[in-house]
Amino acid sequence: MTDYWEQHLARVRGHELVKLRLHWDEAYKISWDGVFRAARLDDGTSLEAHTARELWELMRDDYSERHVKYQP
Q1: Separation CA 36–CA 48 (nearest Å)
Q2: What is the b/e burial string over 7-41, where b = at least 16 CB atoms within 10 angstroms of the residue's CB?
């Protein structure tokens, strides 16, 4: 892969992380380390996915099954 392409993918991934965090950061700690990860803030249960969209869907389903209790 070229440096340009790797930089482009890193920018896209960063943008995707920002969108996930803006919507879900009160309930999950969201990160990327080769895969997208979200850890529940109430019990630490972890979700992982290969794409930001997959993670969004996993968090949506997880949250709808059991809401994350707010941690001040």
Answers
A1: 6
A2: eeeeeeeeebbeebeeebeebbebebeeebbbebb
Judge contact between 39 and 46, C-beta under 8 A.
yes
Q: What is the DSSP letter of 61?
A: H
Give the pair of three-digit tokens for residue 40.
């529940």
- C-alpha–C-alpha distance, residues 22 and 7, integer Å: 23
What confidence tens digit (pLDDT) does each residue in 33-52 have? 999 999 999 999 999 999 99
Q: CA-CA distance, 8 to 45, in Å (whole number)?
A: 31
DSSP, res 42: T
| CB-based contact 6:13 (threshold 8 Å) | no
| 32 token code pair | 């990327």
Q: What is the CB neighbour count within 10 angstroms for residue 52?
A: 18
